[in-house]
């Protein structure tokens, strides 16, 4: 007689688990759905939270007419792209050298990178603001990019160093036999294998740059060089309690992040798992 499989015995439990997970997902998804729904409501309907929206796009029209949305979006994209490019190039090479060398000097260098994650950001705000004035870079996007680079390299180097332990050394030995130098070996063979770690850094750091409010407020003039977050802040101050357009501009600032996460979530998960269990 055939015995019932383990899968058959546990099937009711799996169904209950799936229902619980689905309910939890809907619970976390509700604020996002409410954000999108509220952006489609007229002012008279806004204080009826359970009333379904009527696809009113007038709030979005007000945002485009009354704000410099594209300028703020361009500034934010510039900060993200420049900072990410420098972070990934520098941190991947640093993580490669530290992860492949067991000499104590490289281990000491690794701890030097990690020390950058220990210093509280709040303790350096005044010196960095004074430095901005000394360099005559007030309200400079480039200066803000340099600050983000300095703050992001320690974390990115840690991720790349941990992920390097999962890359076989035989690949480098084979490339060396074929006559490839260290630089070409890294960019042609090793760096493509670091894609999960790069995806992890891309998602986590873009969320940081995109949503950061304090640094742009301190180091930029939000009237002339706004980012999306400071634009939302200024728009809220100007609009008062007119929540429809405020929710609309929040939606416009959120959509790019949702799209980015949907395309990179598998690399994010792979990077976290590899960095946690390897080495």
UniProtKB/TrEMBL annotation:
Domain ABC transmembrane type-1: 73-264
Keywords: Cell membrane, Membrane, Transmembrane, Transmembrane helix, Transport
Its membrane topology: Multi-pass membrane protein
Transmembrane segments: 12-36, 76-96, 108-129, 141-164, 185-210, 243-263
CDD domains: TM_PBP2
Protein's cellular compartments: Cell membrane
Protein family: Belongs to the binding-protein-dependent transport system permease family.
Entries under PANTHER family matching the protein: ABC TRANSPORTER PERMEASE PROTEIN MG189-RELATED-RELATED, LACTOSE TRANSPORT SYSTEM PERMEASE PROTEIN LACG
Protein name (record): Carbohydrate ABC transporter permease
